[in-house]
Specification:
The structure holds two protein chains of two kinds.
Chain A lengths: L7 H29 L6 H11 L3 H18 L1 H10 L1 H21 L5 H31 L13 H4 L2 H25 L2 H32 L5 H5 L4 H19 L3 H23 L2 E3 L9 E2 L7 H28 L12
Antiparallel strand pairs in A: 1-2
Helix pairs in contact in A: 1-3, 1-6, 1-8, 1-12, 3-4, 5-6, 6-8, 8-9, 8-12, 11-12
Chain B lengths: L2 H16 L3 H21 L2 H35 L1 H35 L6 H30 L4 E4 L6 E4 L2 H5 L4 H30 L3 H36 L1 H7 L11 E8 L4 E8 L2 H7 L20 H30 L7 H9 L2 H16 L4 E3 L3 E2 L10 H32 L4 H16 L1
Antiparallel strand pairs in B: 1-2, 3-4, 5-6
Helix pairs in contact in B: 1-3, 1-14, 2-3, 2-5, 2-7, 3-4, 3-14, 4-5, 5-7, 7-8, 7-12, 7-13, 8-9, 8-11, 9-11, 11-13
Classes of the chains: A mainly alpha, B mainly alpha.
Chain lengths: ~350, ~450
């Protein structure tokens, strides 16, 4: 296919963003369910929690893998700098992702109480850890990192865990808890669902507090993230849409419209990712040493030939991906039913 | 140890551990298609029980493959940042295509495979099995294409200079169909089929030894034997084609395979040996004279390019490559013999009779694993000192910001994680195998039980 005349780096900025947003939306509720996992007490309830995400969680993780691959292909300089620069965080993240998979897979394989309790704790801790680490990394990306002329950097663990990044990390955990709780409302019924509705309310309060704190901190300490919104006031609509989406969630839950509540939650995650993308653009990695070393969609992109080939791949592949993502969610729609194939 | 060696050890460790599982999934996937296809054709419930059992094993190997595979997707960036910048244009696009075309397909339909028995029709289930099998092979396609480009780069140009230099795609299809990709892909896929075939053979032989599930075991064993015979012979063919390709495209690697130093001499083919790299000769080896010349040039007296044709800093380590290569070849030959043995026993109607043959069958699952690992080690160590053959040295490809402490940290972290993972894998595999296929009454009664629960 011929894509001459298109702004390919911009398109790939949007596509990589879309893949990572897809990951945040889909694995977000898996991580949220994991974070809430220990709030239940009986084995049956915990099995319902696990089986609510059972058929879909590893497919959801593929969005991260593909997002990583797309970043590698479209912006190799960013892929190289970010993953080597955040070395320890990335390795911990990978170890936790493995650990979560292990916990999900192996919990159901033995019926002993100690065995299951131990894996329950592992599953929940890994889920919270993954969300937290992702948020912390995001916070550091917003704050900027010491990228030098050689286009790479190192960040000691102590400066990685700065207060702003930790705040973004906690906000991410809260966001996914809210999202996961709403997903669980769709997947549960009866007495359990009544309690899950209570979690939704608490999670929304938790999230709104952290969200307001993060927004204030960003405006005060990361003013560069606000510049694009000052230049183009129309973009404020994105922030507004996100807030309306969050406000809409308790309303839909109250009226028992579970799926619409979930869509609102999806919209709020998408708008947060969009705010982040708008605030960063056209930069992908900000240098704290000099703006000359920023990695941008222009100077970090692959050749036009590669971006064009990759766009062909995406144009062919993405309709298939969406089709079978929808198909799988359709097949496994409705309330969780435990059967012989369940976790 | 220096950072480069540590980084190579870390990569080798994580990829070798990962590579235990995808071949099993690819091979089992093909057999699952055969089993469910038999069920749809014959409607014999034995095949359904067989497929249900093997899907459980498949789910386990697949989960291991996913869990260890995510690491690989990011490890290029963490440890090999310079490499990532250099090849992102080419290698990154193959990885992204793998994600879009293969991983989504596999993981999506796997849900139907494992959880969908009572939710979709048998035809839809069969379709999902085909898609998972296709997806698993597609992932092999893209990753082997990407790796083959590192062996025989094509369809690119070098843009920029010094630190800024990088490979840019000029011709996508020339990159995909680079000189070694199709030979290496077919070789890798048949190695994976062998891994799946011997797993089924091994478990079936175990049941026959224990006289349990004999009906399912015999039928499974026959399906596995068909794949074993086909794949082991196909492996010989693709192996030969690969070797001819290596001698043409990476003569230093071929010379290391056979520890052949002198370019003016015809080359023998060793059955085994131990290379003395200082004296540049093979100690205590048995060789067929002129055999390598015959295999690659069709002439027993034709000279084969030797290691002397390359400056010392462009030669791979010889003995280790020699050993891995010959271990792979020997394993491949053993698999051909195994295939003949079991088809002979089958033809005589004696598959379940000889305990020694069944014990051999049980052990056979290890042979393709050895061959697959040894083959990859030979291919990758044989490419040294290059990370991209002739273009970029491994020593130049490291992340500049990553220190020895970083790598030791991640090596220990993954060492602990993978030891835990491997112990659990063996434990669960053992339990699933000892439990065996569900009895027909059990499947039916559970189904009834669920129906009662659901509809009161």
């Amino acid at each position: 296919m011929d894509f001459t005349g298109l702004d390919l780096p911009l398109i790939w900025f949007i596509l990589v963003g879309a893949l990572l947003t897809g990951y945040a939306i889909l694995d977000g509720f898996d991580l949220g369910v994991g974070a809430l996992h220990l709030l239940t007490d009986t084995d049956d309830e915990r099995r319902i929690m696990l089986n609510a995400i059972g058929p879909v969680w590893d497919g959801n993780e593929v969005w991260l893998v593909t997002g990583g691959g797309a970043l590698f292909a479209a912006f190799p300089a960013v892929y190289a700098a970010v993953f080597s620069g955040f070395y320890v965080a990335v390795m911990l993240l990978l170890a936790l992702l493995i650990f979560r998979a292990v916990a999900i897979e192996f919990r159901s394989k033995q019926s002993g109480r100690a065995w299951r309790r131990a894996w329950d704790a592992a599953f929940s801790a890994a889920s919270i850890g993954i969300a937290l680490l992702m948020g912390v990394t995001l916070g550091n990306i917003i704050a900027g990192v010491p990228v030098g002329p050689e286009r790479d950097f190192t960040l000691p663990l102590t400066s990685l865990l700065n207060p702003y990044a930790l705040l973004v990390g906690v906000t991410t955990v809260a966001l996914f808890m809210m999202h996961g709780a709403i997903y669980l409302v769709m997947k549960t019924e009866g007495e359990m669902q009544r309690r899950v509705r209570g979690w939704v309310n608490n999670a929304i309060i938790f999230f709104v507090i952290t969200y307001v704190a993060t927004t204030m901190a960003t405006l005060l300490y990361m003013p560069h993230m606000g510049e694009p919104f000052k230049e183009r006031p129309a973009l404020f609509a994105v922030a507004l849409a996100g807030m309306l989406a969050i406000a809409n969630i308790p309303r839909e839950v109250h009226h028992g419209r579970e799926f619409r509540a979930f869509l609102s939650s999806v919209a709020s995650i998408a708008s947060l990712m969009a705010l982040f993308a708008v605030g960063m653009f056209p930069n992908l990695v900000l240098s704290t040493i000099s703006p000359a070393y920023h990695l941008t969609v222009r100077n970090a992109a692959s050749s036009p030939a590669t971006l064009s080939v990759m766009l062909t791949v995406a144009v062919i592949g993405i309709p298939f991906v969406l089709a079978y993502t929808v198909a799988i969610y359709w097949i496994f729609r409705g309330k969780v039913r435990l059967d012989s194939a369940s976790y | 140890m220096d950072v480069e060696l540590l980084a190579r050890i870390q990569f080798a460790f994580t990829i070798a551990f990962h590579y235990l599982y995808p071949p099993l999934s690819i091979g089992l996937g093909v057999l699952l298609v055969a089993m469910e296809g038999m069920y749809l054709r014959t409607r014999n419930p034995v095949y359904e029980r067989m497929a249900r059992f093997w899907v459980k094993i498949f789910a386990l190997t697949f989960a291991m493959g996913v869990a260890t595979g995510i690491v690989m997707e990011f490890e290029f960036g963490t440890n090999w940042a310079v490499y990532s910048r250099y090849v992102g244009d080419v290698f990154g696009s193959a990885l992204a295509a793998e994600g879009i075309f293969a991983f989504f397909l596999e993981s999506g339909f796997l849900a139907v495979l494992v959880f969908g028995w009572d939710r979709v029709s048998p035809r839809m289930h069969f379709f999902s099995t085909c898609m998972v099998s296709l997806g698993s092979m597609m992932s092999a396609v893209w990753i082997v294409v990407a790796n083959s480009w590192m062996q025989t780069p094509a369809g690119f140009r070098i843009a920029g200079e010094g630190m800024e230099a990088r490979a840019e795609i000029t011709d996508f299809w020339a990159m995909v169909f680079n000189p070694s990709s199709m030979d290496r892909l077919s070789h890798t896929l048949s190695g994976a089929w062998l891994a799946g075939a011997t797993l089924v053979l091994s478990v079936s032989a175990y049941y026959l030894l224990k006289r349990r599930h004999t009906d399912i075991a015999l039928r499974s064993m026959k399906i596995a034997t068909v794949l074993l015979v086909f794949a082991s012979l196909f492996q010989l063919f693709t192996g030969h084609r690969s070797a001819v390709g290596v001698s043409r495209n990476q003569p230093a690697k071929m010379a290391a395979f056979e520890a052949h130093y002198d370019s003016s001499a015809p080359a023998p083919f060793y059955l085994f040996g131990w290379v003395n790299e200082e004296e540049q000769r093979v100690n205590v080896g048995i060789a067929v004279p002129g055999m390598l010349s015959l295999l690659v040039h069709g002439d027993i007296n034709a000279p084969v390019t030797g290691l002397h044709a390359f400056p010392p800093d462009e030669r791979p380590p010889v003995n280790i490559v020699f050993q891995f290569y010959h271990l792979m070849v020997a394993s491949g030959m053993a698999l051909i013999a195994l295939g003949f043995l079991f088809s002979f026993l089958w033809a005589r109607g004696r598959l379940a009779e000889h305990r020694w043959a069944l014990r051999l069958g049980v052990a056979s699952v290890l042979i393709p694993q050895v061959a697959n690992q040894a083959g990859w080690f030979a291919a990758e160590v044989g490419r040294q000192p290059w990370i991209v053959y002739g273009l970029l040295r491994t020593s130049d490809a490291l992340s500049r910001t990553v220190t020895k402490e970083h790598i030791v940290f991640s090596l220990v972290l993954f060492g602990v994680m993978y030891a835990l993972l491997f112990a659990l894998f063996l434990f669960l595999l053992d339990r699933k195998i000892k439990h065996g296929p569900d009895e027909p009454e059990r499947i039916a009664s559970e189904y009834e039980h669920q129906k009662q629960l659901l509809h009161g």
